[in-house]
Amino acid sequence: MKKPNLYKSDDLLLIIGKILAVLLFFPVLITTVYLFAENMNTPGIIADAIMFVTPVFFIITGRKIRRDEEKTLAVWNILAENPEVFIDDIENSTLMSRDEILRHLKLINMRRLGYFVYEKESGSIINGRLRRKNIIVHSCPGCGQIINENIPINLSTIPKCKYCNNPIDIKYLNKEKNRIIDEIINESREAGTVPEKRKFSIFIVIILLIFFWPVAIIYVIVKTRK
Is residue 118 located within the same domain as residue 155? Predict the structure, then answer.
């Protein structure tokens, strides 16, 4: 399954930061040497500081966004392989707080990587498709008579066969439940992810970068996180 790219902003910010670091390396070096050797004037120090801070700020911001993306993908990987999982287990495996996990869960649903529901009563997160599924029992595993029963996949109620009056075999129901879960997992793997359309204009980014680079960073982050 192809790894989804939740944000474009981290890619763009890191690329711009690295390009600026290369382009400004020698100007920063030359102006720093000049300031120390010749004249420590305030305008020169400010200009030197701006040239140094700009690429560093782009790279730090890009890496911060990427770390957040990696946490979201860690939660998504667990949910994609487990249609039903306790949130305590996710806390233990990712070392994230419950609130942080639920924040990432919201982003996963917004980005259409799946639809997962947090059930506060049971403390579990389940795949929305699993929640809507029923086990259809066409015939009684015991006597073979046609019964056409729809049973909730959580097996909260297990009906009796109206012919032999015995409860439907729990082993048979668990086998059908596992089959449905495997189908959901395979469907999730095959579906992949929805490609994210670019929501920002490179032209606007360049203009903002030239005139006031902090606004360029804000513009990229806001546009790609919608």
Answer: no
